[in-house]
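PROTEIN DESIGN WORKSHEET
SECTION A - STRUCTURE
LENGTH: 169
TOKENS:
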């Protein structure tokens, strides 16, 4: 992946609805090479899909919580069964397996506290292998859905010049 590919990814993360013509203009390519690069980024899996970012409140999902899950047992079958069950819960927006304690972090959105309590009691607490659930409520989002940094292999962004060399005297 080169700097042009990174620029394409950065532009699409800001606006996934860009036409190929608009994208080509923004990354300073002609349409044909831009289209080829775009298709290759899709084929390789660097671009995994396109979707709309929807306001949760517009869907009546006004309550969000983070749920920390500690497992009673972590054998392969129990972990797989737990992860399948979590993947099937539509109100679980994100689920990450962690190193250390707790074992998982779930981000959950529901209509209100009562709906969260029902989900917690009836679904989350009954997941396979769960020993303990601990939750905390989200007060507000400070950073949300930030695009991934399109950095070069050296760690800087494509638009930043490399750091100046400092020779020792």
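SECTION B - SEQUENCE
RESIDUE ASSIGNMENT:
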């Amino acid at each position: 992946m080169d700097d042009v590919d990174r620029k394409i990814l950065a532009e699409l993360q800001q606006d996934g609805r860009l036409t190929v013509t608009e994208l080509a203009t923004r990354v300073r390519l002609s349409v044909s090479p831009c289209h080829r690069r775009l298709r290759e980024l899709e084929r390789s899996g660097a671009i995994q899909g396109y979707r709309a970012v929807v306001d949760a409140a517009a869907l009546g999902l006004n309550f969000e919580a983070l749920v920390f899950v500690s497992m009673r047992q972590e054998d392969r079958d129990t972990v797989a069964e737990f992860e399948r069950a979590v993947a099937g819960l539509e109100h679980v927006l994100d689920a990450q397996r962690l190193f250390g304690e707790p074992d998982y972090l779930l981000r959950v959105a529901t209509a209100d506290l009562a709906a969260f309590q029902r989900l917690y009691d009836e679904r989350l607490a009954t997941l396979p292998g769960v020993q303990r659930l601990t939750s905390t409520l989200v007060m507000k989002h400070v950073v949300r859905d930030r695009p991934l940094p399109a950095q070069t292999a050296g760690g800087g962004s494509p638009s930043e010049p490399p750091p100046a060399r400092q020779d020792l005297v």
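SECTION C - NOTES
The longest strand covers residues 63-71.
Residues 31-44 form the longest helix (14 residues).
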